[in-house]
Structure formats: structure tokens, C-alpha cells
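Memo to structure team: turn this sequence into C-alpha cells by end of day. - J.P.
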Amino acid sequence: MTINFRLPKAEVRHLPRLLTTLALLLGFSATLAAQAPKFEAKETSFRHPALEATFQAYEVYELDIVPLYEAIHGTSGFEFVLQLGGQHTWPLHLSPSNLLAPGYQELSTNEDGSLRVIGSGKAEAYEGYLNPKVDEHGYYQPAGEGAGLLPGEVRMSVHQDYLIGFVTIGQQRLFIEPLNYALAGAPANHYLVYDPNDVLQDPELTCGVNDMQKNRPILDDELPDLAEQAALGGGMCVEVELLTAATFDMVTKYGSVPAVNIHIQDITNMMQTYYSFAGINYVIVQQFTPATNGADPFTSSVVAGDLLNSIESWAGGGGIATHDIGQLWVNRDIVGCNGDDPDTNTSLIGCANIGVVCNSNRYNVNEDFQGGTISCLAVLSAHELGHNWDARHDDAGGNSSNIMFPSLNCGAPPTGFGGTSQAVILAHIASRGCLSGCGVPGNDLCVNANPLFCGRTDSGNTSTATATDAADACDGGGLPNAGVWYAFPGNGQIVTISTAGSGFDTQLNIYEGDCGALSCIGGDDDGGPGTTSEFTFCSQNDVIYYIYLDGFGAQTGNYFISLTCEPDTDPPSISCPSDDELVAPPGLCEVEYNVAMPTASDYCGVTVLRYRYRLVDENGNNIPGEDWSAWTTDATQTLAVGVWKIQWQAKDAAGNQNKCSYLVTVSDEEAPAFTKPANQNLSTEDGATCPSPASTDLVVDQNNPIATGGDPFTFTVHGLTFDGPTDYSDNCSSGEDLKLYVWAIDPDFDGNADAYQRTIRVRWRVIDEAGNQNTRNQRFTI
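Reply from structure team:
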């Protein structure tokens, strides 16, 4: 059974070939330098009607690729910043993609049409991640910074003369590819950057009705058996040997045999990520492209069914490597698939045999259609391969983002296969006895740790893993056995690592540090559903975390591992001590206060605990003109007499904060110092008036002071003038706040006054601002 994929040719003539940007985050193996090299592209104002007709939005940049190629070529891992004008800053980590199989061959033809090996080169394809640890200047960020970028998947091919790939930032994927892929004759150093969702697509990019009838969907009553088979295929790692071939018209389009093969490698590198859910690792074992038109072994027919038969016949000949799936790429307007009438199936761009992996007819045909972007071609390749894996057209719920949807969607997400398609593919894996396991997992060693992304699940199998690099056990994680490594950069969020759905009793141990010098964060054995594991903790922005996944009692099998991340939105809890009361020491108007600490806690840890203080009224209300001090962490403060509000603040790494406050009342309980005024003896001989009646200009007033702050004044008694008391002071009060009162006057102190003698006693009282007082008596005897 075959299936076709088509689109109206007239509607896609302007589709530019863009660059795919989907990637697996691979490895954290390199020890990073203080600064990552930066490669800058200059933004241009380039616009073209063909681009306007193809994209809702796009950008064009000028980039010299040679320095980047020379820097990355031959490396096992490379950190750099790609700066695209003022619009995009991409701090990237790339590692070589495992795209070519050991023993890979590049085949072409001799003059007589016989096969010849023309190369066994190394692919220039890379996978990696957006590195949130590098800022826009290329420097590695200190703790607490860089929260704006989260790690995202990246896939790129970096060649000597061009760059092509994509970068994932949050939920957005941006592609970059040479502008001359879209516009012939465009400058070679110009690059197109776009979101594949901005590619203007024709809604008629669908398979024919007859074809849909012939290739029926999966029926509901088949789903239980399908799910059971899918469970057998889930979690496995299979290496799928891929043969690619091209017709000579592809050479006409791209100029040379190597250029065609590299182009197909670029597509395959981008396509690879759509199959991560199934543990499928495509490795190209052989590529064939004829050197001349006369040596092209494939039919010149434009009928896709004929082309399928042609590659099936050719691939059965000598010199062709063993392969699980074969793919033929053509540069012609193909029509007709599976017996369709070519006159009614003119929009075809793909055709594939269904459910045939490892069978003799295990092939699909793809048209490298005019103006097809790299994003579109990667989705086309994934779609046709999906048919080989027994997946049918899937338009459930009208979800056009499904890769198996009858319409081509160039912006299909990484999780582009629908649930039914995934189950069918997993079931087909389980039914194939020809597929090879992946051998020792690539993440068997810490330095080769596979990346995890927030909100994503990875799968694999530990049956061939070793304990070569097993680290020490962490609390709760159990004794490590043979297992695999994962890693992710912390992002300041609360992260949960889970192995829910795994087929054996898993264990998790989580570390920070560097491979070979790791420190435990924690671990878990059975914290998840059943005997699976789950561990939750707060990640830090500047830390790379390593996860070791293995089995309790050395168990192995299929596993799933997921990473979920949630922003820390809960503020710290904080509780202040009770209000405090202090008394200023004798002679002082202040205290040295040991500031009482609050109790503060936070799930992710309190990163800032500080306080400030200000004078308030006795009810704790702010006093106009009195401001807060600066925030401080000093252990002691000198507080003057008064009421002080101490406000504590607790913050966590996410910036959440909480405050509490308490009052400290510093009291002045020391009475003012007041020297007793001297008693006075008066006589009429000295000018005093007669003792009777009593006579003085002093007036008792307990509300209004007669003097303040030691200011001088005079008063009279029986006609004689005397200086008022001025020798008084206070530890806190002065000036108008230190008041002298005429508190009482006794005109006949001893009760013996008559016409000849009298004693008058004046009671002076000094009161400070705190209400402390001192009283002195002064007698006047006439």
C-alpha cells in the first residue's frame, strides 16, 4: 500500500528554502572559558516581492560564515554567541550530531553507470541548546541573572560556505538559512530568519480523496491491541539505517553530487527531532546521487508510483548497503501515487509505502519542490517516513499541527505526531525484528549527558547501560547501578524530575558540579507512581544539574524521564520578634541595640534578609519628615530615645518578598540635673519692703514654663531683684524641651509670719521631654 502527499505547484513557487531550528540539547561536557566567542550578523533592510508573498514576517541579515566554520569545525562541543543585529542574541552550545553511520559511504556513478565510492566524509551537522548561562556580551553570568532565557533546542548545519538551522526560544522556533535558497542570485552572505508559522501556506496542500479512501485510518476497535503493541515499542532506542538517493535533476538544481548529499543531510538533521518520542535514531548508511543524466538509474517518469518501483528495483542490486528505510529525492513535479490518475493528482509532493520498515518495499519518494523551505522539507520527510512506519493521515480534531495531517504544515512543533500516529509507530517498532538497538546508550557517561527540557519527556532503555560512570549515592536515591545520565541548566524555577511510566523500579540521583567532582542535591527511589521516582527541588540560575537514572537492585528496561518547571511565585514566610522596650543608660540619650532577628524561610531558600528602621509615633505611625534608613544587615544599631519601627525583608532567588515589622521603644528614665538655688536673706535695711504682706512677681504656673533650656531671667521678692535658676541640664532634652516651672509658692513657709519677719518658699521644677523631673526649693527670709 502506498500513500501520497501533494500541494498545488502554482501556489508554492515563491516558498523560500529556509533553515530548520529544532534541536536536541546534547551534552554539558566542556569546561567553559570565561567568555564565549561572538559572531555578529548585520541586519539589512532587504525586501523582495517573492518574500513578501511567502512570509507574514521575515528578517534578512549579513553574516560572514567563515570565522564561525573555522572555530567550530572539528570540535566535539562549541560554545558561542550568535548576535543577529539588535533583534536576536543566541548563546549556543553545539555538539556534532550522530547523523552518519560508521562505514558511511557516498556513492555516485562511473561513465558506464557502475557505482563508485566518492567519499566517506564527516557530517557537518550539529545539535545542541540555547545556553542561558551566556549573556549578550558572551560572558558567563553570575548567580541570579539571565532568567530571561530558558534553554531551548537547537539543530544546525555549519558548512564552509553557509549556515542552516533553527533555534528554539520558549515556545517559538526561529529558522535561519541562506537567502539564496529562496532567491536565486541573492548574496551568498545574506541569511533569512523567520518563524515557520509565518510561512504563508495554501489550505489545499492535501492528499487526494481517492488516496484517503484507499489508505483508511486506524479504526477505534483496533486501538486496544495497538496500545498493547505500542507499549512494547515504547521506551526503546532503535538505530534505523537510512539509505538516501537522488535523481540527477537534483544535481542540476544544486550544482554537484556533494551539494545534493549535504542538502539531504541538512534535511535529515532537522527531521530527526520529530522522532525523539519513539527513540528512533536515524543514521545515514549510504547516499547515492548519479554524476550524469545518462548514468541516472532511476526512471525519468514523473509518476510517483513509478519512482517508488524504480528505487525498490535499484536498491535490490549490488553495492547497496543494508538499510531499514530508503528515501528518494527528486526535483520534478511528481504526480500520481498508488494508481491515482496522474491528471487528477498534480499537487503531489510525496509518496510512500505504508507499514513496510525492513520489508523489500521500504521506500518513500519526496519532491524537493520549488521554493520549499528547509522547515517544510523536514516536515515532508518526517511525514513520508511516518507512512513507512505504518502511520496514516491523521486529521483528528482538525489539528493541522499534526505531522500526519493531510496538509503540509511547515511549522509543525517538535511533538508533531498525534497520539494515534505515535501509537502506530511504536507498535510498528515492536513488530520489527530487523532493527538494531542503539548499543551502549550515548549518555552512559556523565560527560555525554543527554539534555532535559522543561515540559518535555525523554525515553530510552537501560538494558545496555553500564555502571562505568555511576556516581556516589545521594540521600534517598539508593545505590547507583548501571544507568544513564541527563543534565539541564538551572533556571531559578522549582523543577520536578519524574520517571513516571517507566517499566522498572527506577532510582534518581541528582548532582551539581562538574563530571568527576559532583556534589549531591538529593535522590529518590519510589516517590513517583508505583515504583517510579520523583524528585522536586529549586534550581539556581548559574548551576548545571546532572541526573543519574538507574534501577533498584540493578533492574533495567524502558524508561521515561520528564522535567517540569514552575516559577517560584510564593513569597518567603517571615515572622518578626515581639515589640521591645529599652531604657537609655545613665548619662546617655541612646542605646546600642542588638537588632532582633526574624524567623524567615522559603522553599527555594531565602537569599536576602535585611532590615531598615525609622522613627514613628507612639502608635507606630510614620512621622512626617522622618524617612526610612537604607536597607542594612548590620547586627547592631544606635537608637536614640523614641519609638522605632524595625522592618525586615526576606527575598528569594525569584524576587518574591515578604516583610514584617516590630517596634522598639527607647525610653529616657533619667531625671534632669538641677542644682539647688541658694536661699536668700533679705532685710529692710538693704531695701526690702516690710515682711507683711508677702510680695513677689513670681506666679505659680504648672502649665507654662517660666524659662527653658537654662535661659536667664530675673524676678523680684519684696522689692529686690534676683536671678532665676539656670543651672539645670538633661541627658536628652535641651532648649525648649527642657522646661523650668514655678511649681508652687508658700508665702508663709514656717507659719510664723508677722509684721517683722516672713519666710517665702519657691518650689522650682525642671521637666524634660520624657516627663522626667527634678524639683528644688528656694527660701527667701525677710
